[in-house]
Amino acid sequence: MELRGLAEDVSLDQWLNDCIWPRESKLKPEDIFWGMQLGLIEMIEAGVTSVSDHYFYMTQAAQAVELVGTRALLGWAMFSNQGQSIIDETAAFVKEWFKSAGNRIHTIMAPHAPYTCDDEFLRITARTAQKMGVGIYIHVSETLEQTQVSLQNRGLTPIQVLENTGVLEVPTILAHACGALPSDIDILSKYSIGIAHAPKTYLKLAMEIAPIREFRLAGINVGLASDGAASNNTLDIWESLFFRLWQQLHPLLFYGLISSNKENMTEILEDLTGQILWQTYHVTVCHLEVIKTSLTTSYFAHPYVSIATQLSAPQIIAQMAMVKISINL
User: Fold this and answer.
1) Alpha carbon of residue 235 to chain centroid
2) Continuous H helices in the chain
3) Which pTM value belongs to this model?
4) Dist. CA 287–CA 208, nearest whole Å
5) How far is it, in rounded angstroms, from Cα 66 to Cα 70?
6) What are the pLDDT digits (tens) for 171-202?
7) Assuming Cys at both sites, which of 41, 184, 295, 312 could form a disulfide with 159, CB separation 3.0 to 4.6 Å?
8) What residues have CB less than 8 Å from 59, skipping those under 6 apart?
């Protein structure tokens, strides 16, 4: 079943409820086995040899990783309407595949999101993760609307829900967090968390621009993500890096925080671009490190990694033909 490019010009809710979830409900284990192999091949083409994945039929996903020879941090997506049984099944998967395939595969608990998992389900998941010594991978505050709805219904932001249910007590990967409030960022800065950031997805689904600069200023690790071909249309992580760069530049330009002096603007843009590239050339390593596994993220297939450790930020920009700053005043 092909999900790539399935739905364009729809909101996140429409995309999930009307387009993706009805089709995902028809997926079979064999679909995941072959789809995971195709996805890994596409990631390898971009130089990525370690991935973090959160989906269904993860035993088949793990078998694909084992066969292809890459590395992965894998979690089985869970919803509270599946009850205690899905937590038990996921725990069994976590135990079976943890440090398997010659230590290339690590595992993690993966409740889907606070809006699809009730508080008690999240508490049980957090306790299970603590008991097993693994982390948690969860979607949270994907949009500002999700944050506002959570405040109306629960009196808490989704990130506050994670804190109250103990999810943040274990190393945690948070997918997206585009709707994080300043108070949420203060909370996250106290815990061992990383954010998976998928900028192309946010453009496709008309979501907010994640506050990456604020995350980084608070000391929060941020790693690039594709979010999968269905919401990205490709798995090219370098394309995601490019979109991250320009999404972060846009607010500065829009609000006039950069001087209109051409020479000064060029200097500021080069410095900011260099900082963003410097922060992101490791790609997945940021959020893999926060899980404190012994995985070592590889990005050997692309030459820009080797130069990034030797050159200054402006030199990196000069070397990278894929990122060109053109200023016309």
Assistant:
1) 12
2) 12-14, 21-24, 29-45, 58-68, 84-97, 100-103, 119-132, 144-154, 158-164, 182-188, 199-204, 212-217, 229-232, 237-254, 262-280, 285-289, 304-308, 313-319
3) 0.75
4) 21
5) 7
6) 999 999 999 999 999 999 999 999 999 888 88
7) 184
8) 29, 93, 96, 97
